[in-house]
TrEMBL record:
The chain crosses the membrane at residues 20-41, 47-70. Keywords: Membrane, Transmembrane, Transmembrane helix. InterPro entries: Uncharacterised_Ynq1. It comes from Jannaschia seosinensis. This is Uncharacterized protein.
């Protein structure tokens, strides 16, 4: 069995970080929307959850493309 290199381990950790941030962002978004709807928070404040989730998604796409490029260049 082949032993993973340090770069393989680093890429796996970056991939795991992307997954954890996406899950956490989605949970915060859903809970924020639910709590905001329950307490009748104004729409402009609820928009902050949407902007935050958009930022999380943008970062995740950026990081995923970076991981893909690093793996592609490794081969």
């Amino acid at each position: 069995m082949k032993v993973p290199s340090d770069q393989d381990i680093a890429l796996a950790l970056r991939s795991r970080r992307v997954a954890i941030v996406l899950i956490a962002g989605a949970l915060i978004f859903v809970l924020g929307e639910a709590i905001g709807a329950y307490y009748a928070v104004p729409g402009r404040w609820m928009g902050l959850f949407e902007i935050a989730m958009l930022a999380v998604m943008g970062w995740a796409i950026w990081e995923t493309v970076t991981i893909w490029r690093l793996r592609r260049d490794k081969e």
